[in-house]
Amino acid sequence: MASSNHLQLLDGWFSPFALRVKIAFNIKSLKYENIEETFHPKSQLLLQSNPVHKKIPVLLHGGKPICESRIILEYIDEVWNSAPTILPADAYERAMARFWAAYIDDKFFVAMKKAVGEEDEEARKPYVEELEEALVTMEGELQKCCREGKGFFGEEIGLVDITFGSLLGWLGVIESMNGRKMIVEEKHPCLVKWAERFSSNPNVKGLIPEADKLIQFSKAIKMKRKPAASAK
Questions:
Q1: Is the pTM of this model over 0.85?
Q2: 51 preceded by cis ω (within 30°)?
Q3: Mutual orientation of helices 16-27 and 69-79 as an angle, nearest 10°?
Q4: Closest CA to 131 of 75, 171, 100
Q5: pLDDT of 133-170, one tens digit each?
Q6: CB atoms within 10 A of CB 138
């Protein structure tokens, strides 16, 4: 039986949402057991732990499941509430962090997922344009932080940075598909420096999957979803 403080993460190496939890664990210096989900079929542990959505990540704390990455991040921050923190202490700043994290998932991630799913460049184009618009918006928000002398979307890596930064690996997939960089110095000077700082931070370094590996994973998933050729 799991102890009351035993931490387990139902993970998928490719998942930006599971990556968020691993970064949070590192920030809080928490030890945990990583359980790689099988998916084909989905494990009984996943189905029992997240019967509503049947998705990763799931945090098991003393055997009790917590689902959805942003909820998990807030849970970790509340339970292990000593510094460094993931959400700001100020109520307004905390609300703003939640707003931008939701924007990233609702706007940026949704467009990214659709773009990765399209093989045809023309079909992919409107989703790439949505991504470019979102990048301009995030650059504008980050510039405010830069003017205040901050290197991240807060004083240190927090909810917004983790939410956005967890998508950098998959952004690399889209860059490879399109043959060009998405975050560029001319349009996004603050984001370029932020991405470098985020990726090289000790709590993040080595965790973001390489784009080539994600591309191979994406191709394998697409092949599985294609209907089998009818028998002759």
A1: yes
A2: no
A3: 10
A4: 171
A5: 999 999 999 999 999 999 999 999 999 999 999 999 99
A6: 23
